[in-house]
Amino acid sequence: MSMAAAERAVWSAWQVRHDRMRRTRRHEMKEHAALVVGALRAMEAKQADTGQVFEDTARMLLKIAQRYGEGRTLALLDPEDLAGITPVVNREWVRLAILGGVVVGAAVGANLLGVPDSASGPPIGIVSLITVGVLCGARLVGADLIDVMRGQSRK
Asked: N or C: which end of the chain has fewer CB within 10 A?
């Protein structure tokens, strides 16, 4: 059982729940989210051991969901649940930097190859879509990527 969807929800929970906050509070929220994601990953690593882990995982996810629903984004798990957990580092910025580098590289490469400006848009878009698909994996649906290229939205 993968916890990737739960991890993404925890990483962005404080941003979704709160509009504006002080910088120190934002730092606390990020630290707590890193600890909670660390606890989720530790629970995911135990899955091969016993069936009891699935019940513990369900309890943990329910506790996180209930506290998120109550607006307690700085207390998604108790300190006892986070004891001995190493915080996880969010490396989403690395994906964005790679994506930016590939898109700029595709644009510069098209220019160096002498592709006319009117014809360079589609290849750059295709390279961008492929890169987003590789970097984001299953988080994006292929049909959504095509809609992004067309400039449309199904929502």
From this structure: C
* Overall pTM surpassing 0.85 (yes/no): no
How far apart are the C-alpha atoms of 107 and 26, rounded to whole Å?
36
Rounded Cα gap, residues 10 and 42, in angstroms: 15
pLDDT tens-digit profile of 73-92?
788 888 888 888 888 887 77
The neighbour count for residue 153, using CB atoms within 10 Å, is 8
Residue pair 10/90 in contact by the 8 Å Cβ criterion: no
Contact call for residues 91 and 39 (beta carbons, < 8 A) = no
> Given this model, what pLDDT does residue 47 score?
73
DSSP E strands, the chain: none
Asked if residue 34 lies in contact with residue 88, where contact means CB atoms within 8 angstroms, the answer is: yes
User: Is 73 exposed, middle or buried, given 0-12, 13-18 or 19+ CB atoms closer than 10 A?
Assistant: buried
List C-alpha distances in Å: 70 to 44, 63, 65. 25, 11, 9
